[in-house]
Amino acid sequence: MITKIGEIFKSATLIERNEQRAVLVSFALVFILMAAYYMLRPVRDAMASDWSNTEISILWNIQFFLSLTFVAIYGASVSRISFRFLVPTVYGFFALSFLCFYLSSGLVSSQVLLDKAFYLWVSLFSLFHVSVFWSLMADLYDKEQSRRLFGFIAVGASAGAIVGPLFAALAVNIAGSDVLMLCASFMMLLPLPIIFYLQRLKVTVLHNERVKVDLSHVKIGGNSLAGFRQFFSSPYLIGIAAFILLYTAIGSFAYFEQANLLRGYSRDERTAILAILALVVNILTFVLGFFATSRLTTRLGMPATLAVVPLFMCAALLVLAFAPILTVLLALQVARQSGNYGITRPAREMLFTSVSRETRFKAKPVVDVAIYRGGDALWSSAFAVLTDGIGLGIGAMAAIGAGIAAIWAGTGMALGRVFNRRSQAQEDDTGQIQANAPEFSQN
What we know:
Radius of gyration: 23 Å
CATH architecture of the largest domain: Up-down Bundle
CATH class of the largest domain: Mainly Alpha
Structural class: mainly alpha
Number of domains: 2
Low-confidence stretches: 439-443
Number of helices: 17
Shape: globular
CATH topology of the largest domain: Growth Hormone, Chain: A
Number of strands: 0
Distance between the termini: 53 Å
Helix content: over 70%
Largest sheet: none
Order of helices and strands: HHHHHHHHHHHHHHHHH
CATH superfamily of the largest domain: MFS general substrate transporter like domains
Oligomer: single chain
């Protein structure tokens, strides 16, 4: 019976019999990680409504420097700690930290400082947990297997991202939001035996002893400024950075106004609302990724694909300017987040396929971390000045956001056209090389 099920599974998924156990365990691992994160995310975001826009802006600026610092620490650790122990150490460390936050909630006199520390810590966790997981997968499977297996494993991430906020929405009404820290801490301990089991399967079942993950792009070695030098010397990369900066502007606007409109609710009520929001976003992201993204890029092309979400956001922000209520803002957040995860982010990652491997490893982290987090810091400061400083309301801010979204759409269109030209040039060069290659025939 088990053999027959295995054969049916192989036919449906192209996963070989000897790979199935490792793949299913990998699926379970990323499911646990994403479920744990999405339990914590609504708790983190619910805290923001207790603070002023200026306080949130200060936290986002601190987050920028913390992110750069921890990326550097992780990069240094990669070259000094065996990868076999590095991954469980990272997850075990985060599990212990979440337990400490839960226990400290009844011991620390300054709850505000503890909440702000938790806010920053969960943001750091979001930066690392998925990246470390995929590094582990690259260490388990060879290149041929990764092409066949990673798509199936990634579904586990989507499933965890759906179950996590669903659990949070139910649990917060029963036990309160603090208990989610304890649940997440327990869940982050589950990966530890799973990781060691996968490492054993790598040798005993997959026979991939020679496969080693390439972490050269995160190691701190050689010229640490090489990525920045490549970034500033490439107009194409600067264009991608501009696109991301405009995205973070809209994201910052939506986040701050969300925090402002949720101030009238209790923290547990906010957590429940944000958990449901995350649940809807992740379901729509799954649907978009499964049915829409590839069709958009192939039928409409990269310029339209990169511009579709910004144009929609421009229209939605104009609606919000005339109807500044929570329901409209939450609908805007659902559209923005699901559109980003399901359409804009995959298309943005495609932009890096037209650069060299060295550029992807050295300059891409500059864009993904320094530019992205720097954009959060920049726009949060601007938002705080315009609201807490000048006193602009949600209507005026929505109108400004609509203008930024229009510029974002134009940047996406231009970037997509540049991508098409670069891709065509690469295809022409490849064809020219093949045409000039000598032909060998058997007589």
